[in-house]
Amino acid sequence: MQKWHSRYVQWVLILVLSAPVLAAVKPPLTHQQYLEDFDFFWETIRDSYGYFNQKQTDWPRVRTIYRAQADTVNSRRAFVRLLGNALAELYDNHASLGTNRPDSRRLVPTGTDVWATFVQGRAVVQQVRAGYGAERAGLRPGAVIETVNGVPVSEAIRPFLP
């Protein structure tokens, strides 16, 4: 009897300790839910964002472009990326999702490893965040950035401009 009881206790403990993990695993959203969530995101910004009068962003066009992309989303990861890209159309470093992926855009300059400015048409590194990837890779102030992933800087920055 004692042996059965201890096994029973072990299984109960495993189930109890696993419950929060199992509860945290949510099923993926349906296609329709992604579209509804995108619409909610877009409408919330349309109704609440206070700086449209200072921007060149055509927010209705943003909806047209990114809602079409929401049609192909099939994971939270892809959805966060899509919302991040749509939000970037505001070119407002203080507008954020409150969640980041490793490749998410970061608040400039506090969330980036490298601060560069254009000097005579060239991207020149001004500061490098101590202890992070860029510094560990050997990037130093004064370095000139000519390409980003093999793409000339002038082309690589286009998606980030209004």
TrEMBL record:
Keywords: Signal. Residues 31-88 form the Tricorn protease C1 domain. Residues 1-23 form the signal peptide. It holds the Pfam family Tricorn_C1. This is Tricorn protease C1 domain-containing protein. It comes from the Bacteria. The lineage of its organism: Bacteria, Pseudomonadati, Bacteroidota, Cytophagia, Cytophagales.
